Amino acid sequence: MSKLKNKVAVITGGNSGIGFGIAQAFKNEGAKGAIIGRNQETLASAVAQLGNNFIAINADVTKVADLERVFKETSEKFGKIDVIVANAGGGAVGTVATIDEADYDKTMDLNLKSVYFTVQKGLPYINEGGSVILIGSNAAHRAYANFTLYGASKAAVIYFAKGFSSDLLDRKIRVNVITPGTTDTPAFEKFIPAEQIKAVKTQFASVMPTGRIGQPSDIGKTAVFLASDDSSFMLGAELLVDGGMTYLAN
Ligand code: NAD
Fold it and tell me: What pTM, to 2 d.p., does this model score?
């Protein structure tokens, strides 16, 4: 399998969940590159599983100076960058009545500012004809209790794919966005007490048209397509990889 042979990728949040699923899928197709995260322990275990063609960089994607360091180090190590995956994200859950200013700022910094500057700081390094992949969320398309701010930030990320593609036409850099539905990742642990996680996943699966929630590998396979020349006619596009959750679930 070599759809991404010799391509160099930077994957933010590549140490966990969807980002790690993308890194594994890239590795299986012959890519190399850097995974970016803040947790040294998961960075070390993820890069050990990915093997010698990957490096781990500890950096905070909400800090522009950290992002500059990420691209400089990756480019020095591999000599070029072909693919950027701006995957790191998350944020506060709550309603318009409960999310305060500090949580608002943190959520927007992580989901929006980080994506904008990940792409901007990657531009001096990414090759002409490179592929940028953003990660949206089905929460951008439907109202879900407690996900208003998160959904709004992801709606803006989906717009970024169009706007960035337009901005970068002269360099032939394609920017597309993958929109996952509920996906089985450690993110559950951030919001749900450990003893309830299994039941919550079962509940989500029961309302999915496909009868299961997504796996990081589902997103990984789509990211391989968007990173490869197979998608060379796509830019500014959104791919829903949500098991039908957005438009078919009740
Ligand atoms: P996760 O918690 O498993 O992974 C999030 C990753 O982001 C981690 O690797 C973490 O280290 C990294 N990260 C967070 N803040 C960071 C920071 N400031 N600097 C550097 N790295 C940071 O979550 P996940 O479920 O794999 O989520 C990945 C992406 O997919 C996110 O953008 C999320 O919004 C999106 N998403 C997830 C789901 C889902 O159901 N899991 C659904 C739709 C969209």
Answer: 0.98
